[in-house]
Amino acid sequence: MALSLVCQKCGTSYVSADIYKDWPEGAPYCPKCFEEWCKENNVEFPFESYKDHPMYLGEKNDDKEMADWYEEYIEQIAKENLRKMKLNQFTFHEYQIMAWSTGKYPGMGNNWVYPVLGLGGESGEVLEKFKKLIRDDNGVITQERLELIKKELGDVLWYVAAICSELKIEMSDVAMSNNEKLLDRLERGKIKGDGDNR
C-alpha cells in the first residue's frame, strides 16, 4: 500500500509503494539507506542505484512539497486502478490503495478507531437491507434490493481496507491468510466445529 513514511535510519521522508520483505524487520528504510543495508548484509539490491528505485523521490525542500507530490502520486495510482477496475483486473492491493486515496477522516493514518466504528456501522446497514427485503419483499431478493446490498457490501469492504491501511497490513495478506487457514481446516476435516484455532 502507498504510505508516506520516514526512514528510521536517516529521517528522510519517502513513499512506500509496497512492503518490501527484504527490509530489516521493524526498520523501513528510504531507498538510499535500503541500498546501503543491502550492501552491508550481502543482499542483492534490485536496482542499479537507489535513484532508480520507484520509491525514490529526489530531494524535497519541505513537508508541503512532499505532501503535494504524495497527493499527486496517489491520484495517479487511483486513476490507473479505476481503469483496471473497469477491465475487471483489480487486486486487493490496488483496491486498498484506491480506497485510501478517497479517505477523509480526522487523524487519518493514525486513527484506527474511526474505520473500526465505520465497519460496525456499515455491517449494520447490510443487515438492515436484508431485514427490509424480508419485511417488504417476502424474502425475495429483487434486482433493486441486490444493487442496494452490493453498495452496502462495498462500504464494508472500504472500511476493511481502511483498517488494514491504518494497521499497515496488506488486504491481500489478510485474504491469503484466511484462505490458508480454511484450506488447512478442510484438509484436517475441521471445517465444522467451534474455536478460532481448531
Structural class: mainly alpha
Alpha plus pi helix count:
6
What is the ordering of alpha helices and beta strands?
EEHHHHHH
Question: Which residue ranges are poorly predicted, with pLDDT under 50 across at least 5 consecutive positions?
Answer: 17-27
Overview of this protein structure:
- The protein has helices at 31-40, 63-86, 92-101, 113-137, 143-166, 171-187, and strands at 3-6, 13-16.
- The chain is mainly α and 198 residues long.
- The protein has a two-stranded antiparallel sheet with strand order 1-2.
- The protein is extended and about 65 Å long.
- Mean pLDDT is 76; it is low at 17-27.
Secondary-structure topology with pairs:
Blueprint: E1 3-6, E2 13-16, H1 31-40, H2 63-86, H3 92-101, H4 113-137, H5 143-166, H6 171-187
Antiparallel strand pairs: 1-2
Helix pairs in contact: 2-3, 3-5, 4-5
List its traits.
single chain, 198 residues, mainly alpha, extended
